[in-house]
Please model this.
Amino acid sequence: MDTASEQAPAPDRNQSAAAYRNLIVATVGFTLTFWAWNLIAPMSGDYKERLGLDSFQQSLLVAVPVLVGSLGRIPVGALTDKFGARLMFPVVSALTIVPVLLLIPAKDSYGAMLAAGFLLGLGGTTFAIGIPLVNSWFPPAKRGLALGVFGMGMGGVALSGYFTPRISKHGDNLPFLIVAGALVVYSLLAAVLITDRPDRKVPTDSLGHRLGQAGRLRVTWELSALYAIGFGGIVAFGVYLPTYLKTWYEMSPTEAGTKAAGFALVTVIFRPAGGWLSDRIHPALVTSAALLAAALMAIVQAFDPPLDPVGTIALLCMAAGLGTASGSVFALVSQVTPQAKVGSVTGIVGAMGGLGGFVPPLVMGAIYSAKGSYSIGFMLLSDLALAGCVYAYGRMRTLRPSS
Model:
């Protein structure tokens, strides 16, 4: 009896160790594949000069991998429900090596760059693999923080933006070779270290049927709308903030890039904070409060305050609100989605979040071209965030956690 009682806690300890191992390995993979996903954007100025591109062609080159990566999360999430992250993470990471290396011979052809960029979108799909993996390993009381920590992998985009152009100064092909090499090592490690939860529910129906079921859930589209505001706002500012700072505040490209990096860093830090708060408060309440804060800061920025200190404070607080909301929304996903459908729902929600980031920059640019001001654009952002705030509080907090 004494021996049995001493050994009883072991499975719990082993399970906890496996949960944290999977969280760490998945977060590293998410960061690395997102770096690969964003390899073109930091070098787009060089490609514009090399290939003689106009602004639209340059924008399209940057947008293709992002759009493909966002939409690709839908089937990848459903495939993860079926085959598990143990297979999907190393396979997708290994396949991403191909377009990374193809960027080397493609650099002298716009058509080839678009084709490589299309395939590079694969790197942006790992988000839909890691969420169901982490969700399955952690109990509800710790799930929000764990999902938030995994979400910090989106910082791979910021790492790429900072390091890729600096590495390229030592050799045009060096960034692609380094990232490809890192992906090779990671794919091998992931194949060994990532494990699916032993009692994971495996769906038996077809991919199309499961996506259809996820698409018919009302909560899928409610969560998609909230994530499109939170994460979409992060993507939008990541893309457009340097342009806004250079145009409106007449900053140098280096200064604007540094400020934009600070904005991105704040969103990365506050994403796990949103998950941590969601473990203690209903995630709908956290989402509502975070979107309210973002809305209020957007209103402040709409009045074109001086950048130091009011504008900087407003933009950083907006980043904190959007980062917190992006973390709390996925804590909400884990509560209101049946376990066997988390991957499918995550894929759709993640896709909508990514796509939601490409409408605001177009709107902001169009409004500035027509009116010579960004104020209307910031007021529209505040309206969307306030709508999300009210909906999260009024509707989403009443949903019961699913078993």
The CA atoms of residues 225 and 352 lie 7 Å apart. The chain has 18 helices and no strands. The two ends are 34 Å apart (CA to CA).
